[in-house]
Write a structure and sequence with these properties.
Length: 446
C-alpha cells in the first residue's frame, strides 16, 4: 500500500504552508516579464517525442537519459516536457505567430519532467519560469532578457548571485571549435565515460557539459570556444557586454559555459548563487538562432532563459527573504444554535462578496468548539449569533487581538465589518470605511 501513500521519487507536494511562497514567486516573475513586454503562453505538458529529440538535441543528457517518454493508447510516442522552449517554438510555428510584429515575446510558468537523481534543488518534476523572444538576432535582445532576470533577482532583494556569460558561436565558427575539441578529446579516449565516447564523433562540445568528474577534469584543459569565434559572433558578444555595462549589470565571462541543450548559439549565460549547495544555477539561457528552422520554420533568430522555481525558492529562503503572508481570517461568525446556522451562512456569504475573509460553522460544532476553532484559525473578529442577536438584529463583533467589543447592526453587516477592519488595520486616523474592496483583499496592503 506504500505506493498509495507516497508520492513518486523526485516529486513534491506543495502544501498550503509553502504554496503561498510559490504564488508570490510566480506573481513577481510574471509581472516583471510583463513590464518587459512579454505575454504569457501556455503549452501542453506533453508533446510528440520527436519535438524534444530534435529541439533539445539527440546527444544531450536530457534526451539521452532524462526524458519521461511513453507510448499512448494510440501507439504514439509522447514525452512529458523536459523544458519549455521546444513547445513554445512549436506553438509559435503552429499558430503562425511569426506573422505578428516581431519580436514576439512570451513568458511561461511550467512544470518540467526529467528523470534525474533527486537531491536538494534537483527534482524529477520541477518548475520553470521561462521567457522566449522570437524574431531578432540583435545583441540588444540578449541583453534585454538578461536584464529581466537580473531585474527579478533585484526585485526579490537577492544579493548573493552572479552572472556568467559566454558565447558559443554560430554553426560556422562552431565547426572549427568542434574539430579542435575532437582532436583534444581523442587523446583521452581511454578515460572518457561511455556517453562521451559516443559524443566524440557526433557532438564533442557536449563532453564539456558532462557531469562525470573524470570528464569534467579532462574538459578543463580543452580548447576554449572564445578563441574560435568568427568576426560576426565576436562583435555580437562584445555588443551584449556593452549593453550590460550600459545597464550597470555586473558579469564575468566564463568560457566554460556551454549549456546542456543543443540549440544554443552565440550568447549563453547563467545566474549562479552561492549558499544553496551544488545545484547553484538558478537561471540559464541564451540565444538559439537555429532552433526555429530545425523545427520546420523559416530561419528565425531567438533567445530566452529558464529559471528554476524551486532553486529560486531555496535561494530566497537561504537569504532570509520574507514572503508576504497570506491574508488573515477577518471574521468568524458563530451560530450559537443549529437553527441560526442559516442566518450565519447568509451573513458570511454577504461579507465574502465584499472581499472580507469570513468563515462560519460547517461542521455542526458546539459554540465552544467553534470558538476554539476560530482561535486556531486566528480570526481577527468573532461574532456570535444567539437568541438576542437574532431577535434584535444587533450583535457584538469582538476584536480577538484587543478583546474590544463593538456592537454592530446586522442589517448593515458589510459596512459595519469593513469599517471595523479598516480601523483595526489603520487605526482611527483613517477615514472610516472608505478603503476599497481591493485594499481589503490585499490584507490592507495596496
Ligand atoms: P543543471 O546543470 O543544474 O542540470 P540544466 O542545464 O540541466 O541545469 P536547464 O535545462 O538550463 O538546466 O534549465 C534551466 C533551469 O531549470 C536551471 O538553471 C535550474 O534552475 C532549473 N532546473 C533544471 N533541472 C532541474 C531539476 N531537475 N530540478 C530542479 N530545477 C531544475
Ligand atoms: Mg540538467
Amino acid at each position: 500500500m506504500a505506493y498509495l501513500t507516497k508520492a513518486p521519487r523526485g516529486t513534491a507536494d506543495i502544501l498550503p504552508d509553502e504554496s503561498y511562497k510559490l504564488r508570490f514567486i510566480e506573481k513577481t516573475t510574471g509581472d516583471a516579464a510583463a513590464l518587459f513586454g512579454f505575454k504569457e503562453i501556455r503549452t501542453p505538458v506533453f508533446e510528440h517525442t520527436e519535438l524534444f529529440q530534435r529541439g533539445v538535441g539527440e546527444t544531450t543528457d536530457v534526451v539521452q537519459k532524462e526524458m519521461y517518454t511513453f507510448e499512448d493508447n494510440g501507439k504514439r510516442s509522447v514525452t512529458l516536457r523536459p523544458e519549455g522552449t521546444a513547445g513554445t517554438v512549436r506553438a509559435f510555428l503552429e499558430h503562425g505567430l511569426f506573422n505578428e510584429p516581431l519580436p514576439q515575446k512570451y513568458y511561461y510558468h511550467t512544470s518540467c519532467y526529467r528523470y534525474e537523481k533527486p537531491q536538494a534543488g534537483r527534482l524529477r518534476e520541477f518548475h520553470q519560469f521561462g521567457v522566449e523572444s522570437f524574431g531578432t538576432g540583435e545583441p540588444a535582445q540578449d541583453a534585454e532578457i538578461i536584464s529581466l532576470a537580473k531585474h527579478i533577482f533585484d526585485l526579490f532583494g537577492l544579493s548573493g548571485i552572479r552572472l556568467e556569460i559566454n558565447s558559443i558561436g554560430c554553426p560556422v565558427c562552431r565547426a572549427e571549435f568542434q574539430k579542435a575539441l575532437k582532436t583534444y578529446f581523442e587523446g583521452y579516449k581511454d578515460q572518457l565515460c561511455e556517453t562521451c565516447l559516443g559524443r566524440l564523433d557526433r557532438n564533442p562540445m557536449r563532453i564539456l557539459d558532462c557531469k562525470s568528474p573524470v570528464c569534467a577534469e579532462i574538459a578543463k584543459g580543452a580548447p576554449k570556444v572564445l578563441d574560435f569565434l568568427c568576426e560576426d559572433c565576436s562583435a555580437h558578444f562584445a555588443a551584449v557586454q556593452k549593453y550590460l555595462t550600459a545597464m550597470n549589470i555586473e558579469f564575468t565571462v566564463n568560457p566554460t559555459i556551454v549549456r546542456g541543450l543543443d540549440y544554443y548559439t552565440k550568447t549563453v549565460f547563467e545566474f549562479v548563487a552561492g549558499g544553496i549547495g551544488a545545484q547553484s544555477t538558478v537561471c540559464g539561457g541564451g540565444r538559439y538562432d537555429g532552433l526555429v528552422e530545425e523545427l520546420g520554420g523559416a530561419p528565425t533568430p531567438a533567445c530566452g532563459f529558464g529559471m528554476g522555481i524551486e532553486r529560486l525558492k531555496l535561494l530566497l529562503e537561504a537569504e532570509g527573504i520574507t514572503f508576504p503572508e497570506e491574508k488573515r481570517l477577518d471574521i468568524y461568525i458563530a451560530p450559537a444554535k443549529a437553527e441560526y446556522s442559516f442566518e450565519a451562512m447568509r451573513l458570511t456569504d454577504a461579507l465574502r462578496r465584499e472581499g472580507v475573509t469570513a468563515l462560519t460553522d460547517v461542521s455542526a460544532r458546539s459554540l465552544k468548539a467553534q470558538m476554539k476553532f476560530a482561535n486556531k484559525k486566528n480570526a481577527l473578529f468573532t461574532l456570535v449569533l444567539g437568541d438576542t442577536e437574532i431577535e434584535t438584529a444587533k450583535a457584538k463583533a469582538k476584536n480577538m487581538d484587543t478583546g474590544e467589543e463593538t456592537e454592530i447592526d446586522l442589517r448593515n453587516i458589510t459596512e459595519e465589518i469593513t469599517g471595523l477592519l479598516v480601523r483595526a488595520m489603520f487605526g482611527e486616523t483613517e477615514p472610516n470605511g472608505t478603503l476599497s474592496k481591493l485594499t481589503l483583499l490585499n490584507g490592507g496592503k495596496n
